Structure formats: C-alpha cells, structure tokens
Amino acid sequence: MEIPAKLPFSKRRLPPRVVISYIFDYVIIIVCAIGFAILNKVEPFHQHFSLNNISIQYPYAVHERVPMVYALCISGVFPLVLIILYTLFIDGLFSHHKPQDGASGKRKLRGPHRWKDRLWELNCGILGLILAQGLAFFITQALKTACGKPRPDLIDRCQPRVGSKDLFPGLSNSTICTGDPALLTDGFRSWPSGHSSSSFAGLVYTSLWLGGKLHIMDNRGEAWKALLVMVPLLAASLVAVSRIMDARHHPFDVITGSMLGVVCGFVAYRQYFPPLSEPWRKGRAYPIRSWGSDPVGPDTVQLVRNSSVALRNPEDGRIDPDIPRSEHARPDASTYLHSSSPYASNMYNRRPHDHDADAGVWSSSEDDVTNGYEMRQQNHDASHHAPQYDPSNAYVSQTQPLTANAGIHVSDPMAGPGRPLTNMPSRAM
After folding, report:
1. How far apart are CA 93 and CA 125, in angstroms?
2. Is residue 249 annotated as a catalytic residue, yes or no?
3. 185-189, 365-369, 374-378 — which one is most confidently predicted on average?
C-alpha cells in the first residue's frame, strides 16, 4: 500500500513519518477488533462451582433490559453522531469573536474555525472514541476468557443431570451440565462485565470530550455545563446496573468492568486532547504529531492568569522557506522571557484566560505548523490585537534566572514604585 503524501484537506505534503505515526493508531484499533473476534470464539476457562452456591442460582433472563446492540448504540453511535454534529456545525457558532468576511464585512455565522480545522478535530474525536471502545472490548474479552468466572444464572444454563451432587471433598464442574452448549460457554464469562466496560469507555470519553469543548473547568461556575457532562456518565451507570438486574453479572463484575471502561476512556481521550484542567485550550485536539521530535517538557517560565510562555526548542527555530516571512515574525512572550531549558516548547501560543480564547483561532492543520508541527494562532480579524505584556505580572522561574539581556524590569515593591529590581537571585524549589 502506498503511503499518501498529504491528507485530503491539506495543501502541504506530509513527511512519511507523520503518516506512519497515525497509521499505527488505526492498526491498533484493527488488531483489537480482530483479537476480540478471535477470543469470542475461544472456549473460556471453566471454573469449578458448587450446586449449593446461591449466588449462581438466579433464573436465566431470556430478554435483556439492554441488549448489546442497544448498549453499542448508547455508547458508540450516540457519541459518534454528537462528535460529528458538534465539530462540523456547532463548534464556534456561539463564539463572541467571529471573524469578518472580507467582501461583505459581515461576521461569519459559523465562527472562526476553518473546514480543515474542523476535519482535523473530527478525525481526532472519532479516532479517540473508537480507540476507547476497541481497548475496552479487547481487554474485557481477554479477561473473560482467561478467568472463566460463572455468571449468576449458571445453574439455570447448566441444567445439571438429575441426582448430581458436589464432589466430597471438592466442587462440581461443567461435565454434569446438559444445557445448551452455547449458553453454557457464555455462562463462564461473568468477569468483567462487557456492557459496563464498553459503556463507560465510550461515555466517559464522550463526557471528557464534551467537557473540553465546553471548557467546564474555567472557574466560571456554570452549572448547566456540569449537568450536560454528567448525562453520559448517568447513561453508562444505568447500562451497567441493568446487568445486575438481569442477573447476568455479579456486582463485583459490574464495578470492575466500569473501572476498566473509565481507564480506557480516559487514556483514549488524553492521546488526542488536552486535559480539562487547561480550559484555555477549549478542548481543541493536539496538533499533528511526528516521530523524531523532542518531547514537550514543562515550561520553566510562566505568565499569570493561566497563560503560558511561548518557548521554542532551539532546533525548531530554523526558518522554513515555505512559510511566509510574516509568519516568522510573530511576536510572542518568548521575546520578553528567556529560558535555557532544552525541552521548552512553543506548543500552544494562547491569549490569557480572562480574554476569551475564541478571540484567536487555533489551528492544528499541518499547513499551519512549522517543522515541529506545532499549533499556531490564525488572526482573521486585524482589529483583534494580543493583550499588552505587563512585566509586573510575570511569574519568575524559581529554577532559571533571568538573563542579563532579557530586557525585563520588574518593580520592587519594597523599593517603591518605578524602581527596577536588579540582581534577582535564583532560588531552588
């Protein structure tokens, strides 16, 4: 198979290492699907059981309250439709800083996000959802097959021969069963609950994704956002509880399956999206990644009010001839502050939190990034200027001293107004 040179919505050719790095994401999902199909046909381990064990003598429920098809619609189809509709049509619709059309002068109804940005967000959103479900199904089925724990309705599935008794000393095994072999095989797949793990994987991912888009942790205390984010979690809980009501799983199976789903959903979300504790990113997907680039470390210098310092890896500072010189001349906070950390990165150049982040348009498309594939800010409206830098509000790193030529004068509150603070010593954390 020939590796594509660029994405369908791209104008710039992508290096093969970028394409390969994302191909493996889809390969992992395909492997999980194939592994689940294989494990589903493998005979699970059959634990010994006691005919006198009351916890496995529940009647077999012919009709489930939430069949697997319905569970997949709730945890898979609904989140998929939500991600598609929100990303393509709703995202940016209520922005307070919509760019103006150059010809008519009217503000664009659809907001500041371009189609290629929406398509990139859609790609990451769907990829994360499928990854969460794929991991949950594969891990759950592997544990079911290896453990072979009896379901609460195992005796009804087993239909023991007349006169069967537990060995003394010892327990009974599946050789005394006369019931349907298919039902009996499934009767030894109680732990963990597949409905619970898949539902929580898909709906926890949806809850995190929705919370990021609504920037729920922006310290503004809007309760309706919390309510919307909790709805998917309530749906997952109801699906999980239905397995206990149908006597298909023990409570321990449901609890552990739910915990597994939570982990899968969280891990899948964090592969492509920033944490909810950084609401200024508005839940926008990470920019295009590539192998061979330096990892992003913590910034050694930060500004207050939840803005970050734009620090760049020295290797990423080289000029790309394909990028206009106007793009290279972008002023940012690195003009004022300097760090010697080799891991500092200009991953996100953003405005302070109090100034709505919608004032800038964030792009993760590959034709808007440098050789380091970093997110850039697209200013469609020239009237929107970045806020002025206030040196008195700067947070000075405790590990890195300011350089002599940094050009920053910080007022000394003990020395009186207007008097610069010089020879500031660095302190160890």
Report:
1. 18
2. yes
3. 185-189
**CB–CB of 394/337 below 8 Å?**
yes
Active-site residue among 46, 113, 215, 249? Answer: 249
What's the pTM value of the predicted model, to 2 decimals?
A: 0.70
Identify whether the C-beta of residue 177 lies closer than 8 Å to the C-beta of residue 158.
yes
Contact 337/408 with Cβ under 8 angstroms? yes
Cis peptide before 425 (omega within 30 of 0): no
What average pLDDT does the segment 416-425 reach? 49
- Burial class for 130, CB neighbours closer than 10 Å (0-12, 13-18, 19+): buried
CA-wise closest residue to 126 among 281, 22, 5: 22
Q: State the Cα–Cα distance between residues 319 and 271, nearest whole angstrom.
A: 29
Q: What is the DSSP letter of 79?
A: H
Q: Would strands 361-363 and 302-303 be described as parallel, antiparallel, or unpaired?
A: unpaired
Q: What is the mean pLDDT of residues 283-289?
A: 87
Query: Do residues 201 and 132 lie in contact, with contact meaning Cβ atoms separated by under 8 Å?
Result: yes
DSSP sequence for 18-72: HHHHHHHHHHHHHHHHHHHHHHHHSPPP---B-TT-GGG-PPP-SS-SS-HHHHH
| 421 to 309, 313, 340, 368, 401: CA distances (angstroms) | 21, 29, 21, 40, 13
d(CA 172, CA 166): 5
Phi, psi torsion values for 123, nearest 5 degrees? -60, -50
Catalytic residue among 97, 195, 215, 338: 195
Measured distance CA(4)–CA(12) in Å, rounded: 12
96 catalytic per annotation: no
Instruction: Give the model's pLDDT for residue 91.
Output: 87
Say how far apart CA 155 and CA 313 lie, in whole Å: 64
Structural contact between residues 142 and 39, judged by C-beta atoms closer than 8 angstroms: yes
